[in-house]
What we know:
Layout: E1 5-10, E2 16-18, H1 38-47, E3 56-60, E4 64-68, E5 72-78, E6 83-85, E7 88-90, E8 96-98, E9 104-106, E10 114-119, E11 150-152, E12 175-181, H2 190-198, E13 201-203, E14 211-215, E15 230-231, E16 236-238, E17 246-248, E18 255-256, E19 260-264, H3 269-273, E20 280-288
Parallel strand pairs: 12-20
Antiparallel strand pairs: 1-4, 1-11, 2-3, 3-10, 4-9, 5-8, 5-10, 6-7, 6-9, 12-19, 13-14, 13-20, 14-17, 15-18, 16-17, 16-19
Amino acid sequence: MTDRAFAVVRAGALTTVQDLGRPGHAHLGVPRSGALDPPAARLVNRLVGNPLDAAVLETTVNGCAVRPRRPVTVAVGGAPCPVTVDGRPAPWGAPVRVPAGALLDVGTALSGVRCYVAFDGGVAVEPVLGSRSTDLLSGLGPPPLADGAFLPLGHPATHHARVDIVPQPAPPRELVLRVTLGPRSDWFTATALATLTTRAYRVSSASNRIGLRTEGPALERALQGELPSEGMVLGAVQVPPDGRPVVFLADHPTTGGYPVVAVVRESDLAAAAQARPGTPVRFVEVGRGRPATRG
């Protein structure tokens, strides 16, 4: 086995390989996928000298531990967390040199949900449709990390950022999502639209890479009929029969049959990736789209 690889010692609750995703394949039924917090993934890549679209590890809540077979420069960002190398504290948010055979442990997030781990050279699993991302919905890309697995690493760049630490946004204490109403806002009562944009919701523990589910007041439908399945976009706020909005994230389905009451601005979705269950959510209207033609 090549020394350009690392062994997974502790996979954590859910650790996946992610890059910036595979957009442009929705017509094939393939979601975009990719890092839920793209700014964090790009930053850790910059810190180790990688291209911004190099593949990284995305951990969920309780981190992971890996043992590289060659010396590597790594950077951990996203949700703040403790980082150790062979049990010794190492910096978060800065490049760290890890000797061959040493144990890199990314601990439980102190706030937020998802940490990002970049290795110089990137995680070099085989790309599928131009991306190395794990897609939990379609099953494309590498499977989630498992204890004992080995993952390949690419060839490192010659230089990495020489910084002590870089500023990163803190996980949200309140998640504010700017929305444009539509295309199916006319399927809801005026009271429901006012409820969406004035009442408080909370992040549900049922949230995942597919969608951020919410807890709070149900939205009343004006139309009770069936809606034919139609295309869904990143950030779509779909309303299932229980009336609680669901914000579609990177692994969302490309079509769906429940009405979309609004769409969240893409720039707000990185914060959604770091919002823990129980975090207050506010939907703020910034535009109103044209209602779709009923039919």
